[in-house]
């Protein structure tokens, strides 16, 4: 994806642009794969999460849509990347990519479901269990939730501690067939298998133990604090596993 100037967080995306995308989608149907891949790339920087419901009509198949509420994020690599674990912990820690790679790696295969309706079946994820990262800092008495921040500078999310401690929540280093790519939130993103995609924060840079759940980016814009796949957010989906 080409670097572009950041759009102010939460700036509205024009309806005309969304309608233009629907036109592109029609072209994709006629022309097949390559344009659809291009379209997925186009959908990324827009990241408006389809307030009109029109983008959802574009057929892209069982593939990830690239979402970012910002125009992307800086590129971080093995030398520059760091993950700070702080807040209500016994001892704050900062982990580099090599630290995370040196911890026990867990692989899980789960569906990925966005609250807007698209679902990617049986995605392979690998990384460190979030619970092990939390244990590295030691969860302090009184903490009931975990807040996540992104080095895109804008996106935030949270999970109740009991969800955060589940075996199917990973600080993911790998996704699909290799390292988490930049567009998918690399080098490190969160994956919370039981939750809708908005909980799986990309470009993870901070984990903070908090006294109560802090509503994140989409939750202050109407999404449910509980992102469990099923009947939250006014949906009725099969649970992912
Ligand atoms: N930093 C950041 N993380 C994010 C988002 C985002 O806009 N910014 N979008 C979320 C939503 S709503 C979904 S469905 C998934 C999409 O992941 P993908 O872009 O790898 O397909 O990322 C989630 N994590
Ligand atoms: Mo989503």
TrEMBL record:
Superkingdom of the source species: Bacteria
Residue ranges of domain Oxidoreductase molybdopterin-binding in the record: 73-218
Record-linked InterPro entries: OxRdtase_Mopterin-bd_dom (IPR000572), OxRdtase_Mopterin-bd_sf (IPR036374), TAT_signal (IPR006311)
Listed PROSITE patterns: TAT
Alphabetized PANTHER family for the sequence: OXIDOREDUCTASE MOLYBDOPTERIN-BINDING DOMAIN-CONTAINING PROTEIN (PTHR43032:SF4), PROTEIN-METHIONINE-SULFOXIDE REDUCTASE (PTHR43032)
Listed name of the protein: Molybdopterin-dependent oxidoreductase
Lineage start: Bacteria, Bacillati, Actinomycetota, Actinomycetes, Mycobacteriales
């Amino acid at each position: 994806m080409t670097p572009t100037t950041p759009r102010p967080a939460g700036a509205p995306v024009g309806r005309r642009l969304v309608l233009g995308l629907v036109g592109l989608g029609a072209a994709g149907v006629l022309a097949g794969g390559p344009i659809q891949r291009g379209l997925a790339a186009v959908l990324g920087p827009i990241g408006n999460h389809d307030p009109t419901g029109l983008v959802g009509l574009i057929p892209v198949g069982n593939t990830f849509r690239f979402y970012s509420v910002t125009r992307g994020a800086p590129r971080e690599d093995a030398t520059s990347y760091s993950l700070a674990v702080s807040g209500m912990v016994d001892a704050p820690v900062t982990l580099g990519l090599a630290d995370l790679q040196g911890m026990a790696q867990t692989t899980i295969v789960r569906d990925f479901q966005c609250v807007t309706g698209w679902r990617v079946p049986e995605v392979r994820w690998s990384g460190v269990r979030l619970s092990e990262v939390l244990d590295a800092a030691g969860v302090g008495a009184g903490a009931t939730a975990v807040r996540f921040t992104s080095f895109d500078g804008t996106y935030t999310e949270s999970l109740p501690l009991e969800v955060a401690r589940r075996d199917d929540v990973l600080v993911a280093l790998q996704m699909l067939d290799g390292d988490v790519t930049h567009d998918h939130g690399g080098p490190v993103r969160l994956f919370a298998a039981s939750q809708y995609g908005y909980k799986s924060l990309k470009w993870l840079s901070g984990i903070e133990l908090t006294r109560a759940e802090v509503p994140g980016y989409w939750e202050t814009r109407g999404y449910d604090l509980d992102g469990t796949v099923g009947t939250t957010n006014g949906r009725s989906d099969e649970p992912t596993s």
